[in-house]
From TrEMBL:
Key words, A-Z: 2Fe-2S, Iron, Iron-sulfur, Membrane, Metal-binding, Transmembrane, Transmembrane helix
Name listed for the protein in its UniProt record: Ferredoxin, 2Fe-2S
UniProt similarity note: Belongs to the bacterial ring-hydroxylating dioxygenase ferredoxin component family.
Gene3D superfamilies recorded: Rieske [2Fe-2S] iron-sulphur domain (2.102.10.10)
Family matches, as CDD domains: Rieske (cd03467)
Source organism of this protein record: uncultured Rubrobacteraceae bacterium
Length: 299
Protein backbone atom coordinates (compact mmCIF):
# COMPACT_ATOMS: atom_id res chain seq x y z
CA UNK A 1 0.00 0.00 0.00
CA UNK A 2 1.28 3.47 -0.90
CA UNK A 3 2.36 5.40 2.18
CA UNK A 4 1.65 9.05 2.94
CA UNK A 5 4.36 11.65 3.49
CA UNK A 6 3.70 11.41 7.21
CA UNK A 7 4.14 7.66 7.26
CA UNK A 8 7.42 7.96 5.38
CA UNK A 9 8.63 10.47 8.00
CA UNK A 10 7.63 8.04 10.74
CA UNK A 11 9.46 5.17 9.01
CA UNK A 12 12.64 7.26 9.16
CA UNK A 13 12.49 7.12 12.98
CA UNK A 14 12.73 3.41 13.91
CA UNK A 15 13.19 4.20 17.61
CA UNK A 16 9.62 5.48 18.01
CA UNK A 17 8.10 2.28 19.41
CA UNK A 18 10.84 1.89 22.01
CA UNK A 19 10.48 5.50 23.03
CA UNK A 20 6.71 5.17 23.22
CA UNK A 21 6.96 2.05 25.39
CA UNK A 22 9.09 3.99 27.85
CA UNK A 23 7.23 7.30 27.82
CA UNK A 24 3.54 6.46 27.46
CA UNK A 25 3.07 4.70 30.86
CA UNK A 26 4.73 7.64 32.60
CA UNK A 27 2.46 10.13 30.83
CA UNK A 28 -0.57 8.09 31.87
CA UNK A 29 0.63 7.96 35.47
CA UNK A 30 1.31 11.70 35.51
CA UNK A 31 -2.12 12.62 34.16
CA UNK A 32 -3.88 10.16 36.45
CA UNK A 33 -1.99 11.57 39.43
CA UNK A 34 -3.64 14.91 38.71
CA UNK A 35 -7.04 13.33 39.28
CA UNK A 36 -10.36 14.11 37.62
CA UNK A 37 -9.68 17.86 37.56
CA UNK A 38 -6.45 17.49 35.56
CA UNK A 39 -8.12 15.18 33.05
CA UNK A 40 -11.11 17.54 32.77
CA UNK A 41 -8.82 20.45 31.95
CA UNK A 42 -6.30 18.65 29.70
CA UNK A 43 -8.91 16.76 27.68
CA UNK A 44 -10.84 19.98 26.98
CA UNK A 45 -14.17 18.73 28.37
CA UNK A 46 -14.79 22.19 29.85
CA UNK A 47 -14.18 23.75 26.41
CA UNK A 48 -16.43 21.20 24.65
CA UNK A 49 -13.84 20.67 21.91
CA UNK A 50 -10.37 19.04 22.00
CA UNK A 51 -7.96 21.54 23.56
CA UNK A 52 -4.67 20.64 21.82
CA UNK A 53 -5.62 21.76 18.26
CA UNK A 54 -6.79 25.11 19.64
CA UNK A 55 -3.58 25.69 21.56
CA UNK A 56 -1.32 24.84 18.62
CA UNK A 57 -2.61 27.91 16.80
CA UNK A 58 -0.76 30.10 19.31
CA UNK A 59 2.82 28.92 18.60
CA UNK A 60 2.24 28.38 14.87
CA UNK A 61 0.74 31.84 14.43
CA UNK A 62 3.31 33.54 16.67
CA UNK A 63 6.28 31.87 15.00
CA UNK A 64 4.94 32.75 11.55
CA UNK A 65 4.67 36.36 12.70
CA UNK A 66 8.24 36.16 14.03
CA UNK A 67 9.41 34.91 10.63
CA UNK A 68 7.79 37.91 8.94
CA UNK A 69 9.17 40.40 11.46
CA UNK A 70 12.67 38.90 11.19
CA UNK A 71 12.49 39.46 7.44
CA UNK A 72 11.32 43.04 7.89
CA UNK A 73 14.11 43.61 10.41
CA UNK A 74 16.72 42.41 7.91
CA UNK A 75 15.29 44.65 5.19
CA UNK A 76 14.62 47.79 7.23
CA UNK A 77 16.93 47.51 10.24
CA UNK A 78 14.19 49.05 12.36
CA UNK A 79 14.26 48.38 16.09
CA UNK A 80 10.47 48.04 16.15
CA UNK A 81 10.61 45.09 13.76
CA UNK A 82 13.36 43.45 15.82
CA UNK A 83 11.37 43.83 19.02
CA UNK A 84 8.23 42.51 17.34
CA UNK A 85 10.11 39.43 16.12
CA UNK A 86 11.47 38.69 19.60
CA UNK A 87 8.09 39.25 21.23
CA UNK A 88 6.34 36.96 18.74
CA UNK A 89 8.99 34.29 19.24
CA UNK A 90 8.55 34.53 23.03
CA UNK A 91 4.78 34.14 22.82
CA UNK A 92 5.24 31.15 20.52
CA UNK A 93 7.67 29.43 22.87
CA UNK A 94 5.37 29.93 25.86
CA UNK A 95 2.40 28.64 23.88
CA UNK A 96 4.46 25.74 22.56
CA UNK A 97 5.20 24.38 26.04
CA UNK A 98 1.51 24.51 26.98
CA UNK A 99 0.43 22.87 23.70
CA UNK A 100 3.05 20.14 24.19
CA UNK A 101 1.72 19.26 27.66
CA UNK A 102 -1.84 18.94 26.37
CA UNK A 103 -0.68 17.04 23.28
CA UNK A 104 1.08 14.39 25.39
CA UNK A 105 -2.15 14.01 27.34
CA UNK A 106 -4.07 13.31 24.12
CA UNK A 107 -1.40 10.80 23.06
CA UNK A 108 -1.62 8.72 26.25
CA UNK A 109 -4.40 6.47 24.84
CA UNK A 110 -3.00 5.80 21.37
CA UNK A 111 -1.66 2.52 20.03
CA UNK A 112 -0.22 1.08 16.81
CA UNK A 113 0.33 3.42 13.88
CA UNK A 114 -1.33 6.39 15.53
CA UNK A 115 0.92 6.03 18.58
CA UNK A 116 4.06 6.00 16.39
CA UNK A 117 2.89 8.99 14.40
CA UNK A 118 1.95 10.79 17.61
CA UNK A 119 5.42 10.19 19.02
CA UNK A 120 7.09 11.41 15.83
CA UNK A 121 4.81 14.47 15.96
CA UNK A 122 6.02 15.07 19.52
CA UNK A 123 9.70 14.49 18.68
CA UNK A 124 9.69 16.96 15.80
CA UNK A 125 7.73 19.60 17.67
CA UNK A 126 9.83 19.20 20.84
CA UNK A 127 13.04 19.58 18.86
CA UNK A 128 11.61 22.65 17.13
CA UNK A 129 10.52 24.09 20.47
CA UNK A 130 14.00 23.63 21.93
CA UNK A 131 15.59 25.31 18.92
CA UNK A 132 13.18 28.24 19.22
CA UNK A 133 13.99 28.52 22.92
CA UNK A 134 17.69 28.49 22.04
CA UNK A 135 16.98 31.22 19.50
CA UNK A 136 15.62 33.44 22.26
CA UNK A 137 18.74 32.89 24.36
CA UNK A 138 21.04 33.60 21.43
CA UNK A 139 19.18 36.81 20.61
CA UNK A 140 19.32 37.89 24.25
CA UNK A 141 23.11 37.45 24.31
CA UNK A 142 23.61 39.49 21.14
CA UNK A 143 24.15 36.60 18.70
CA UNK A 144 21.22 37.57 16.58
CA UNK A 145 22.19 35.87 13.32
CA UNK A 146 22.77 32.57 15.11
CA UNK A 147 19.40 33.08 16.76
CA UNK A 148 17.73 33.56 13.42
CA UNK A 149 19.30 30.36 12.06
CA UNK A 150 18.19 28.38 15.12
CA UNK A 151 14.69 29.76 14.71
CA UNK A 152 14.54 28.84 11.00
CA UNK A 153 15.62 25.28 11.83
CA UNK A 154 13.05 25.06 14.61
CA UNK A 155 10.30 26.52 12.44
CA UNK A 156 11.03 23.91 9.76
CA UNK A 157 10.79 21.05 12.26
CA UNK A 158 7.57 22.46 13.69
CA UNK A 159 6.15 22.64 10.18
CA UNK A 160 6.82 18.93 9.66
CA UNK A 161 5.39 18.20 13.10
CA UNK A 162 2.25 20.15 12.27
CA UNK A 163 1.81 18.08 9.11
CA UNK A 164 1.91 14.89 11.18
CA UNK A 165 -0.63 16.40 13.54
CA UNK A 166 -2.95 16.88 10.59
CA UNK A 167 -2.51 13.24 9.60
CA UNK A 168 -3.37 12.16 13.14
CA UNK A 169 -6.69 13.93 12.81
CA UNK A 170 -7.54 13.24 9.17
CA UNK A 171 -6.02 9.78 8.69
CA UNK A 172 -6.43 8.23 12.14
CA UNK A 173 -9.44 10.24 13.31
CA UNK A 174 -7.81 11.34 16.56
CA UNK A 175 -10.17 13.43 18.76
CA UNK A 176 -12.95 13.58 16.17
CA UNK A 177 -16.59 12.80 17.00
CA UNK A 178 -16.91 9.25 15.69
CA UNK A 179 -20.67 9.27 16.05
CA UNK A 180 -20.77 11.67 13.10
CA UNK A 181 -19.84 8.75 10.83
CA UNK A 182 -22.34 6.26 12.29
CA UNK A 183 -25.85 5.70 10.97
CA UNK A 184 -28.10 8.34 12.45
CA UNK A 185 -31.18 6.21 12.97
CA UNK A 186 -34.82 6.85 12.06
CA UNK A 187 -36.17 10.27 11.22
CA UNK A 188 -39.54 9.35 12.71
CA UNK A 189 -40.60 7.27 15.69
CA UNK A 190 -39.97 3.53 15.37
CA UNK A 191 -40.96 0.90 17.98
CA UNK A 192 -37.89 -0.91 19.29
CA UNK A 193 -38.72 -2.68 22.58
CA UNK A 194 -41.57 -3.61 24.90
CA UNK A 195 -41.61 -1.15 27.78
CA UNK A 196 -41.77 -4.02 30.28
CA UNK A 197 -38.46 -5.38 28.96
CA UNK A 198 -36.46 -2.32 30.10
CA UNK A 199 -36.00 -2.51 33.85
CA UNK A 200 -34.81 0.22 36.19
CA UNK A 201 -31.01 0.49 36.30
CA UNK A 202 -30.60 -1.44 33.04
CA UNK A 203 -28.71 -0.31 29.96
CA UNK A 204 -29.90 -2.05 26.80
CA UNK A 205 -28.18 -1.80 23.39
CA UNK A 206 -30.57 -2.06 20.46
CA UNK A 207 -30.21 -1.51 16.72
CA UNK A 208 -32.67 0.56 14.76
CA UNK A 209 -32.26 1.56 11.11
CA UNK A 210 -28.58 0.63 11.29
CA UNK A 211 -27.92 2.81 14.35
CA UNK A 212 -26.79 1.36 17.67
CA UNK A 213 -28.76 2.98 20.48
CA UNK A 214 -28.38 2.68 24.26
CA UNK A 215 -31.69 2.62 26.15
CA UNK A 216 -32.00 3.26 29.88
CA UNK A 217 -34.42 4.64 32.46
CA UNK A 218 -33.68 7.77 34.42
CA UNK A 219 -33.31 7.16 38.14
CA UNK A 220 -34.91 10.54 38.80
CA UNK A 221 -38.26 10.12 37.08
CA UNK A 222 -38.22 6.72 35.35
CA UNK A 223 -38.47 8.15 31.85
CA UNK A 224 -36.85 6.27 28.96
CA UNK A 225 -33.60 7.81 27.71
CA UNK A 226 -31.67 7.01 24.54
CA UNK A 227 -28.21 7.98 23.30
CA UNK A 228 -25.73 6.51 20.80
CA UNK A 229 -24.34 3.25 22.16
CA UNK A 230 -20.84 3.70 20.70
CA UNK A 231 -18.49 6.06 22.54
CA UNK A 232 -17.59 8.96 20.26
CA UNK A 233 -13.99 9.05 21.54
CA UNK A 234 -12.66 5.74 20.19
CA UNK A 235 -15.68 3.54 19.67
CA UNK A 236 -16.05 1.84 23.05
CA UNK A 237 -19.28 -0.15 23.73
CA UNK A 238 -21.11 1.91 26.34
CA UNK A 239 -23.50 -0.91 27.31
CA UNK A 240 -20.47 -2.72 28.77
CA UNK A 241 -19.51 0.28 30.89
CA UNK A 242 -20.41 1.02 34.49
CA UNK A 243 -23.62 2.86 35.23
CA UNK A 244 -23.35 5.45 37.99
CA UNK A 245 -26.69 7.12 38.60
CA UNK A 246 -27.86 8.60 35.33
CA UNK A 247 -24.38 8.46 33.79
CA UNK A 248 -22.40 5.75 32.02
CA UNK A 249 -18.61 5.33 32.09
CA UNK A 250 -17.04 3.98 28.89
CA UNK A 251 -15.15 0.74 29.61
CA UNK A 252 -12.25 1.64 27.31
CA UNK A 253 -10.99 5.06 28.41
CA UNK A 254 -13.40 6.06 31.19
CA UNK A 255 -15.24 8.87 29.40
CA UNK A 256 -18.47 9.63 31.26
CA UNK A 257 -21.75 10.62 29.59
CA UNK A 258 -25.18 11.66 30.80
CA UNK A 259 -27.55 8.83 29.81
CA UNK A 260 -30.40 11.20 28.97
CA UNK A 261 -28.72 14.20 27.34
CA UNK A 262 -25.57 12.46 26.03
CA UNK A 263 -23.43 15.30 27.42
CA UNK A 264 -19.76 14.47 28.03
CA UNK A 265 -19.07 14.91 31.73
CA UNK A 266 -15.54 13.50 31.97
CA UNK A 267 -12.99 13.02 29.19
CA UNK A 268 -11.18 12.08 27.15
CA UNK A 269 -14.40 12.42 25.12
CA UNK A 270 -15.46 16.04 24.69
CA UNK A 271 -18.39 15.77 22.29
CA UNK A 272 -21.89 14.74 23.39
CA UNK A 273 -23.24 11.40 22.29
CA UNK A 274 -25.83 11.48 19.51
CA UNK A 275 -29.27 11.72 21.06
CA UNK A 276 -32.67 10.17 20.42
CA UNK A 277 -36.16 11.22 21.38
CA UNK A 278 -38.28 8.56 23.05
CA UNK A 279 -41.93 7.90 23.75
CA UNK A 280 -44.08 4.97 24.88
CA UNK A 281 -47.10 3.98 22.75
CA UNK A 282 -49.29 0.96 23.52
CA UNK A 283 -46.63 -0.55 25.75
CA UNK A 284 -43.85 -0.19 23.20
CA UNK A 285 -40.80 2.09 23.45
CA UNK A 286 -40.34 4.16 20.30
CA UNK A 287 -37.28 6.20 19.34
CA UNK A 288 -36.28 8.66 16.65
CA UNK A 289 -33.07 10.58 15.99
CA UNK A 290 -32.99 14.19 17.09
CA UNK A 291 -32.84 16.56 14.14
CA UNK A 292 -29.28 17.71 14.92
CA UNK A 293 -27.92 14.19 14.37
CA UNK A 294 -29.47 13.53 10.98
CA UNK A 295 -27.09 13.96 8.04
CA UNK A 296 -28.41 13.32 4.59
CA UNK A 297 -26.25 10.86 2.68
CA UNK A 298 -25.95 11.30 -1.08
CA UNK A 299 -26.51 7.98 -2.89
Amino acid sequence: MEKTIGERIVDAMPFLDRASDAVQPKVQELVDAGGATARYVLDGVWFEVPLHPVLTDVPIGSWTAALVFDGLDLVSGRTAMRNAADASLTVGVAGGFVAAAVGFSDWRYLSGGSRRMGMSHAVLNSAGLLLNTASLLLRATGRRNAGRLAFLAGYSLNGMGAHLGGELSYKYGLRVNRNAFEETGPGDYVPVLDEADLSAGEMRRIEVDGADVLLSRSEKDGRVCAIAATCNHMGGPLEKGDREGDTVVCPWHLSRFDLCSGKAINGPAVFPQSGYETRVREGRIEVKAVEENIQEKIT
